[in-house]
Amino acid sequence: MMGFIWFWLVAVMIVGYVVLDGFDLGVGVLHLFLVRTEQDRRSTLASIGPVWDGNEVWLLAGGGTLYFAFPLLYASAFSGFYLPLMIVLWLLILRGISLELRNHIDVGVWRALLDGVFGLASGLLTIFFGAALANVLRGVPLQADGYFFLPLWTNWQPGPHPGILDWYTVIGGVVALVALTLHGALWLALKTSGDLETRARRLVKPLCLQLTALTVISLGATIHVRPESLDNYFNYPFTFIVPVGVVASLAGIWFFNRAHKPLRAFLSSCLYLFFMLAGACWGLYPTLLPATSGAANDITLSRAISGPHTLAVGLVWWAFGMTLAIGYAVFVYSRFKGKVDLETAAH
Amino acid sequence: MTPELIHRLHFAFTITFHYLFPQLTMGLALLIVVLKSVALKTGDEKWDRAARFWGKIFGINFVFGVVTGIPMEFEFGTNWARFSRLSGGVIGQPLAMEGVFSFFLESAFLGLFLYGEKRISRLMHWFSAFMVFVGSWISGFFIIVTDAWMQHPVAYTRLPNGGFEVVSFWQLLLNPWALLQYAHNMMGAVVTGSFVMAAVGAFYLLEGRREEYARIFLKVGVTAGLLSSILIIFPTGDLAGKFVAHNQPAAIAAMEGLFHSEAGAGMVLMGQPNEETGQIDNPIVVNDLLSFLIYGTNKAEVVGLDQIPHDQWPTALPLLFYAYHIMAGLGTWFVLLMLVSALLLWRGTLTHARWVLWALLLSFPLPYIANTAGWMTAELGRQPWLIYGLMRTSEGFSSTVSASNGLFTLLGFMGLYSLLGLLFTVLMYREISQGPEPTTAHAE
Description:
heterodimer, A: 2 strands, B: 444 residues, two-stranded antiparallel ribbon, 72% helix
């Protein structure tokens, strides 16, 4: 029971991270293409300025939760994905610093350079996160002692000796790139006004079509690479609600965007991310990290879980702390609600 | 180079660089609350501008702290997998709590503090500053709790698979080591914050501009600097030192360079420990002082390294000795400088005492050095243990990550952090030259 609860609590943290940091990553990618005027730049920046580092905290809090609830998974996955994780760290550093510098240094070549770094790092991060999730779904060559080490790529095939990148994980990366870019476009449509808003909204249509196609492809690919992903669904048929939710939220994005209801369109996109991630987690459960070297080496819930007292105590403070955290988030977002107003957005 | 050494350097380098930023933000957070409180009470716009100015400095340091802090949490898993696998149930707890209880709070209210001043009331803006202070100090607490458990493991039991499990949540949080180190460490952060604030004040006065802000900075910086410089030695440093002496005799012997057990042990003020001959070369010693500091009587016996098996000696003995002596020496300088400055401040002549202003300006890097040396003392003193007495450092690093992969990413971090250091300096220079007055670049 504790295992079930903590599995889903960690999943909640991951969903929280993707939904929240997702839109500012997407805005990072988009500003390279959408921004035309100085006014646009400042609106784009101001739309994520007060919230982006709070969004990134979900990654830290999620990582910490994973660490104490499933220490074996944390140890195994983080050391096994050593190289890509270090690249992720460097990208996170470059992205955060370039965003901060843009607030202070705003001249000529500097501006172009920092804009470029910010956009590129944001885009690469979405791809890495997508590929990371795909790596977990596909499985890794776990040894009996619970460790592995993955090279960046091998023969681009998801077989028993995969690399970080193969055709399947690349699909995962592209899905994440498109999904989060769309998520960012919906955020901009919600938060900005005038010409920029129009351009952001126009972008939603093609991105939504691409994402629909990619969703279908990635779903098929996942079933092909790891057919067991469907077991839970057939054992509990009501959980087919998840793919239905994916389709419905995609339709919601499309429909609400056309109907000029930007908040509902953005929320649909949050739901899309939620259903996709929850669906992936459900496909794995109760495995945490499948082994390509045979199911005996899988890292399962029961194998990775912390001691009972740790988890019981954790539940108390986690529930208390996250309630507070959500309270702060609601408070901050409500202070900055509505369209970005450059008059009051001085840094 | 062995994988163990690479992974140690990896963590040591990234954490040392990281901690340059939080030590300032934790110290400044308190001082900003002081500035905002005066502004709120007197309604004097100058104090609000001063708070806004330091808010900007805080903001830059905060972002550098965040981006260099994320790797720290990751490195427990990436570089110290075998340690994390066994200890996650215990130290994963405070690390997760830091995110949940502190970072959400801090980032939410910092956003309000920096971006929302026009959207909220004056009282609410003061409250945001206060919550940023609370958040950053909670964050420090959870990190110290994590470290304290490695230094002085309490409230644990072993699971059948070898992992550690908490038996008492409150004992883990209220580990005496954590409480003492926390008080000591936070005073260190206030020392950094107040020295930096005083140094900027001194800089403005020496340049002959922004005198009214310089006075504010000096008043707050010197007052807080004097209090924290005293508190960091007595009682916090004194108590922390005694606790180490009672619980980690090898560490204290190495810190003090005490190779032989002695009744009435002297304190070595300077010298070079020589591991081969087992003595201090060129020492300057104060007789009996060490016995007195630890036990309160100058004839008490202090355990020397000769009573400790060689395989339990701290592995970098001279470095530990120097780090500790640098920390203690600088601590003494802080009190002296701040005493003189406070005296002049009280008499109203500090603004004209150019030599003291120069000393204040040039001393701003020293708290960074002292804080770093203090952390090195604590962590090198723990060696060769990763969890004191329970797990050796050689048993904790990731066995699947080879030395060359570790070296590659260590060099990557060194390069990236050099760039970050450069950019940080540029940003600081710009903000400090721009000063607290409203300008067109930062629309009011």
